[in-house]
TrEMBL record:
The active site is at Y54. PROSITE patterns: ALDOKETO_REDUCTASE_2. Residues 23-263 form the NADP-dependent oxidoreductase domain. It comes from Gracilibacillus kekensis. It holds the Pfam family Aldo_ket_red. The lineage of its organism: Bacteria, Bacillati, Bacillota, Bacilli, Bacillales. This is Aldo/keto reductase. Substrate binds at H112.
Length: 279
């Protein structure tokens, strides 16, 4: 049952991951990220999602340390950047992230993008498998991988990825990818679930929100959860961090779920993983 901020899903290796977390993409290191994470943890969030390229792991780590919450109660995710996908570089990149975060292990480590050149992500995956077997990471996964990238990876993988974090919102529902991930027991996770605010005024969503006396954002985040998708909305405002998490006291009807399903446009706000190769 997904009925509070501590509700978890069990990944295929038995690790429990919260359905709901805080993302810190484009949140500035220092006071801004520190406060965001602090407010989230104080409110009951257990899952925080960062990445090496966000350049805010130090602020995240400081907020975690200052929270006083036992480490084992938290679920911390970071990501391996594109320029670090060579085997030795990937091993070192995790050490750097752990050092910045002030942690001894990560709960989840993701390959940030499927860099196509020279099968770099396959090399990275070998490093992730080693780190996983060494106990440095409790679960390993992918970010922004399409079906063909995952199929390619699985040809040589010893460990099936536990998670695939992708752009996911009512305008980009990625149904075939979601189905593919389900078939392989890979948990889908949504980044940019609110499409950076671009869909908050949509009349279909605002109408559903009125019916439930909720905000449009809350309706979208509830839709994620009812779709079986982990969601990590970002905010730097305390009241929003609280409001985003207020999605456990109502349920969308089958009819409302269908109305949202019909909003799909296959429209991205972020890069296409097939063409994104930023170093």
């Amino acid at each position: 049952m997904v009925n509070n901020l501590q509700s978890t899903t069990t990944l295929h290796n038995g690790v429990k991951m919260p359905w709901f977390g805080l993302g810190v993409f484009q949140v500035e290191d220092g006071e801004e990220v520190y406060n965001s994470v602090k407010w989230a943890l104080e409110h009951g969030y257990k899952s925080i999602d960062t990445a090496a390229i966000y350049k805010n792991e130090e602020g995240v780590g400081k907020a975690i340390k200052d929270s006083g919450i036992p480490r084992e109660e938290l679920f911390i995710t970071s990501k391996l950047w594109n320029s670090d996908q060579a085997y030795e570089d990937a091993l070192q990149a995790l050490e750097t992230s752990l050092e910045k975060l002030g942690l001894e292990y990560l709960d989840l480590y993701l390959i940030h993008w499927p860099v196509p050149e020279q099968n770099k992500y396959k090399e990275a995956w070998k490093a992730m498998e080693k780190l996983y077997k060494d106990g440095k990471i409790r679960a390993i996964g992918l970010s922004n991988f399409k079906e063909h990238h995952i199929e390619d990876l699985l040809e040589d993988a010893e460990v099936v990825p536990m998670v695939n974090q992708v752009e996911y919102h009512p305008h980009l529902q990625q149904r075939s990818l979601h189905e593919f991930c389900k078939q392989h027991n890979i948990q889908l996770e949504a980044w940019s679930p609110l499409k950076q605010g671009q869909i908050l005024a949509d009349p279909i969503l605002t109408d559903i929100a009125k019916r439930h006396e909720k905000s449009t954002a809350q309706v979208i985040l509830r839709w994620d959860l009812q779709q079986g998708v982990i969601t990590i909305p970002k905010s730097v405002k305390q009241h929003r961090i609280h409001d985003n998490a207020d999605v456990f006291d109502f349920e969308l009807t089958d009819e409302e779920m269908k109305l949202i399903a019909n909003m799909n446009k296959d429209e991205r706000i972020g890069p296409d993983p097939d063409t994104f190769n930023k170093r």
